[in-house]
Amino acid sequence: MELDVYKTLKAPSDEILFKERKSKFFGYAYPIQHEDEVKTIIEALKKQHHTANHVCYAWQLGIEDINYRANDDGEPNNSAGMPIYGQIQSFGVTNVLVAVARIFGGTKLGVGGLISAYRTAAQMALDSAEIIEKTLQQRYLLHFDYSEMDKVMRILKQHQMEIISQKMEMDCTLEISVRKNDAILTENIFAAMYPVKIKKLDV
């Protein structure tokens, strides 16, 4: 697989329900961009399932620098959050939150039973979500005289570089986006094109 391609979710999954010895496990999967989103989603789930004894979850963010967390929400250590996280890894997705709300049915499942139930609910939630491939992008600012416009546009078209925004006045400023794998090639092309100035932007 290409280094600049990653898998994530297109949209939140449908709610799934897994039952185990009268306990109900409601599973959900969400695409997320920032850790801040996690708290809001979990709080909404706790309101929705106000009779739930536990809302356990795991999330992973990042493509090159991976950041993740698993939360057992009062279940025995590593019996909920880590089995959920294991499914995120198994599906090979990132920028994703998977949560499972458990409503206790009166029969204890034991640690092994919990691990199995949370794993299954997480797997069903991810199965019901649409997984898509995305490409890591690098953005640049190009600055050049109007007279260079044709030359620049020809290169952008030839290398399928996307124009994000443009400002045309006495001179021109373009913000472009390219695949991360093509970043060095892009820098070399425009660095060789005097008098075009190229500046790398932090995404």
TrEMBL record:
The entry's cellular-component GO terms read:
cytoplasm
Q: Impact N-terminal domain location, by residue?
A: 21-126
Q: Which domain of life is it from?
A: Bacteria
Q: Which InterPro entries match?
A: Impact, Impact_N, Impact_N_sf, Ribosomal_Su5_D2-typ_SF
Entry's Pfam families?
Answer: Impact_N (PF01205)
**Gene Ontology BP, a term:** regulation of translational initiation
UniProt family annotation:
Belongs to the IMPACT family.
Q: What is this protein called?
A: Uncharacterized protein, YigZ family
